[in-house]
Amino acid sequence: MPGTVAVVGAGPTGLALALMLAHQGRRVVVHERFDEPRPIGAGFMLQPTGLHVLDRLGLTNRVKALGQPLEHIFGREARRRRVVLDVSYADLKSPRPDGVNALGVHRAAIFQVLYDACLAGGVAFETNREIAAAADGRLTDANGLTGPAFDLVVDASGARSPIARDLLVRQGGRRHELAWGALWATVPWPGDPFDAMGLEQVYRGASRMIGILPVGARPDSPDRLATFFWSLKPADHDYWLRAGMERWKAEVRGLWPEVAGLLETIPDPGALTLARYGHHTLPLPVADRLAVVGDAAHSTSPQLGQGVNMGLLDALTLAEALDTHADLDEALAVYARIRRWHVRLYQGLSMGFTPFYQADGQALPWVRDHVLGRLARLPFAARILAATVSGVLLDPRQGPGERDDYPVLKAP
Ligand SMILES: Cc1cc2nc3c(=O)[nH]c(=O)nc-3n(C[C@H](O)[C@H](O)[C@H](O)COP(=O)(O)OP(=O)(O)OC[C@H]3O[C@@H](n4cnc5c(N)ncnc54)[C@H](O)[C@@H]3O)c2cc1C
User: Which CATH number do you get for residue 29?
Assistant: First the structure.
């Protein structure tokens, strides 16, 4: 049983895992490239799966106090304002007992809650350490310095992890950079007529998409916030910059006139961050004294809103496997086996769904608006859609043939 663990990356996955392992009495050192661990990235949706992991850590109420409960996801087509996506968490077969099935969360909120709990739990942090490689339980940083040996290294350093990239290549896999990404900005919550309980999106074809997600508050201020998204190909970013803000704002207002006020809070291009998406899945997220979790193990487009939740599930599964199996290799094999099917299903769904929302052609958005939109109104479809976005289409910690240990996360 590993007494010392090096975790690479202080994102939500790395922090949650470090905390769980510290609670098990292990000595845990998180290695982070920044001078100080800090939140990075857009506001996001915590699904029932992610909330279940926070329940297990006893942290749900602290995140709930900052986040914004969400009841549905709503998509409209810009031209005729027809509703083409309407997912309600109330349609879940087993909604959560507290009635909060999903939360919009600012990154700083989940970061602060997990980071404070890590510090209180005795997790150590080594900052300013950009890790380039891991072998035999040792980490080598970008300056070529190799540190002491740990019983186990866990790579939680995100989608562009060099450790996971090496493992992927060794396993014959490949990462695909996706053509589409998004610009995002944190803005004050705009209030009416926007829906405080839902993610709202407006589409024109699949080449234009605007999203507004209420994300609650940062830990240091009571002001309610939202994350604003605009679909963009990274390759078109320079053109977008040259075209100027006014032209872009006019286009956004043309698609969704109600956002005019919100656009006033985005003064210049610097207020919008460009997110690039890639897709990869490690065939086997473990190796000798190494486990890979979160985006490092499986990255994809965030269209289905699962990434943080998948990382938290990885963390819980790995921590439980280490707790219940004295032999390290066996524990790593159990982690890989339990997460295998759920990760593959959601990676496949993300890959399959994304072109309906982000693509150049007209065919897929037409199918989305005219076929899928109608199918989604059938009674059985509502439950499947709710289960899909909730991350419970398949029990996340129960592959085919596994024991039924996790009643909270039952598939529909
Ligand atoms: C625009 C956008 C919207 C999204 N919306 C959602 C959503 O609604 N719901 C959802 O669940 N997910 C969403 N995601 C996906 C989500 O952001 C990721 O899945 C999640 O952040 C992965 O967490 P992680 O801890 O595995 O990795 P990360 O959050 O990427 O954290 C990695 C950490 O490792 C550190 N690090 C990186 N490289 C090194 C290195 N070499 N050495 C040391 N440290 C290193 C980083 O600084 C960081 O602290 C969205 C993503 C984007 C871009």
Answer: 3.50.50.60
Q: Is the dihedral of CA 396, 50, 315, 105 positive or negative?
A: positive
Residue 209 lies in a domain: no
Pair 31, 178: CB distance under 8 Å:
no
Is residue 143 within 8 A of residue 232, CB to CB? The reply is no
Cβ of 130 below 6 Å from ligand 1: yes
Find where tokens 């053509």 sit: 179
Question: What's the pTM?
Answer: 0.95
Q: Which atom of ligand 1 is nearest to the CA of 293?
A: 26
Is position 109 within any domain?
yes
Structure confidence at residue 374 (pLDDT): 78
Structural domain contains residue 195 = no
For the chain, what percentages of helix, strand and coil (3-state, to nearest 5) are there?
Answer: 40, 25, 35
Lowest-pLDDT choice from 48-62, 256-270, 332-346, 369-383: 369-383
Asked, for residue 204, whether it belongs to a domain, the answer is no
Q: Which residues, other chains included, contact 231 with Cβ-Cβ below 8 Å and sequence gap of 6+? A: 180, 181, 182, 207, 208, 209, 210, 357, 358
Give residue for tokens 């890590």: 118
Ligand 1: which of 51, 131, 157 to mutate, judged by most atoms within 8 Å of the beta carbon? 157
What total number of domains does the chain contain? Answer: 1
Query: Range of 24's domain?
Result: 4-177+278-390
